[in-house]
Amino acid sequence: MQDGKSLGIRLSDLRIAIAGDLHGQWDATDERLLELIAPDALLVVGDLNDGQQQIPARLSRLQLPLACVLGNHDTGRDSSGRTLQRQLAALGDRHCGWGLRELRPPGLAVVGGRPASAGGGFHLNQGAQAVFGPVSLEESVSRIVTAALAADPSLPLVLLAHSGPTGLGSAAGDPCGRDWKPPACDWGDQDLALAIERIRRRRPVPLVVFGHMHHRLKRGQGDRLSFCRDRAGTAYLNTAFVPRHGTDDRGRPLRHFSWAVFRDGELGEVSHRWYSPEGELLYRQVLAAPLAAKQLAPC
Ligand SMILES: [Fe+2]
After folding, report:
1. pLDDT beneath 70: ranges in the chain
2. Of 9, 61, 116, 281, which has the fewest CB atoms closer than 10 Å, so is most exposed?
3. CB 158 within 8 A of CB 196
4. Ligand 1 centroid to 134 CA: how many Å?
């Protein structure tokens, strides 16, 4: 008997919803919406709020397979690290900073970048240092690489970070470009870029997801480029559409998620999506289209 794959028939889509920097915008409506649109997994890139407990607690109660990495705002500007530690405790093993989280089902390996990053090369803020101790650039790279190489090679791999990597451009509107003060520069994370390079010597990295650098640029500079692909085929998605709760010009409420589909292990559609609270897809910005359907094999 031939299986679906040998016939070129699409076996399954793995549909991932991604919530960009929440900055407090997560509530029961988002949870109902997730039930309606029913992704296979949810990824969250941090900056849930400013150290408050409510959102980590809500995320930890979700039944959906979930992986999260915390952002700089999640330290609550608490240099003692206690606020960050409470967030980590609430999320438990859903938090994958510097670690591996395999989601089974649906069959996805998620590796987290450095927790609580504020971008800008390599800098551990005081709260993160209080929790994790002094971690060098090389140690941070090594933790990310080790986690990725421990992942089941048969699962698609997503790197999940609060700040994206260096190397994606130095203009204000690039995926990790500094827009809030001149001169514009590359504000990505150096450790994440080095880790990606090393992981790719051993296995592909199809998708890197991050936030932190909001889509709407400061000082009236327009909108950020939120997606790109490098020469090695790795796709980079900045998911920080902030605020993620809004309304359209007809006054209809909108909720933003980014969306990524793996089709038989290969990255297909990547998009930004804006849903009504009732689950209607009202707007979609397609960033990457699915690969052409495979040809049916001859009988
Ligand atoms: Fe941030």
Report:
1. 1-11, 291-299
2. 61
3. no
4. 20
